[in-house]
Amino acid sequence: MKMQKIAFLVVPLALLSTTATTQTFGTVSETGQGTYTHSGNKITYRWEHPTIQGDVYVMTFSIIYPRGIDYMKSVYGQKLHNHGNYSRFIQRDPFQKDLETVADALRELARKNGLNEVRLALSFVQALPYQDGLGSYQKYAVETLLDTAGDCSDTSVLLAGIFAVWGYDSVFLEFPEHLAVGLWTDPIPGGTYWSHRGRRFYLCETTGTGWEIGFGDPQYRKATISEVNR
Predict the structure, then answer these.
(1) What is the mean pLDDT of residues 216-222?
(2) Which of 15, 55, 95, 229 is deepest in the core (most CB within 10 A)?
(3) Residue 133 falls inside a structural domain
(4) Pure H helices in 27-167
(5) Do the beta carbons of residue 127 and residue 50 sit within 8 Å?
(6) Total count of domains within the chain
(7) Average pLDDT, the chain
């Protein structure tokens, strides 16, 4: 599958319109708020994303708790967690259809309101509460949503999975005790990027709120790059 490159137009925040098809970048932005409702084996997720104009965009979707997840955790959990091989959680995801449901909902919300879907996806993932699980069971993307929380590797797999559904070229950025995502985009002034395969992959920090594409904690600079799409 041919990977797509993301193109952005950088303009002052004050000029950003809710109907624009391009997106601004800065050091921080608003981050949405998620609300979860469990009913039997179904989880309904309502996510509200504010804008600098005071508007609020709402996205709602439901996922039926997939059969087999608890069994996989008990039998394969510790074995599946393998640093440097996160691509298996994208390429061999047994819950791909559920992830596509989430990606489609994000894309529909973005297109309906003239928002940038990549920035929207990053804000969506950042809204998930951080749950320390370093060295333990590595989740598939939909599991992080069902647990309504995750650590840096869980949320990075979720974001990279959404990008993969959309056909965007991204990589995993592995740091000591941390994981993030790199996205191939047009140059972002002041943004942090890593060169790989002749392309610039800009940082997408999934933990903490408000980080824009290309910006994150300055302590994370030396990364080992691994492929999302192998």
Answers:
(1) 87
(2) 95
(3) yes
(4) 69-80, 88-91, 96-113, 117-126, 141-147, 152-166
(5) no
(6) 1
(7) 76
Does residue 210 contact residue 30 with C-beta atoms inside 8 Å? yes
Tokens in use for 31? 């981050």
Range of the domain at 138: 13-227
Cα angle: 101, vertex 94, 2; to 5 degrees: 70
pLDDT in tens, 143-189: 888 888 899 999 999 999 999 999 999 999 999 989 999 999 999 99
Domain-embedded: residue 6:
no
CA 5 vs. chain centroid, Å, equals 16
Distance in angstroms (rounded) separating the CA atoms of residues 104 and 114: 15
Q: What confidence score (pLDDT) does residue 9 get?
A: 35
Residues whose CB falls within 8 Å of the CB of residue 156, separated by 6 or more in sequence, listed in order: 86, 172, 179, 180, 181, 206
**Cα–Cα distance, 5 to 177 (Å, whole number):** 29
Q: What is the pLDDT of residue 123?
A: 87
> Of all residues in the chain, what percent are helix, strand and coil, respectively (each to 5)?
30, 25, 45
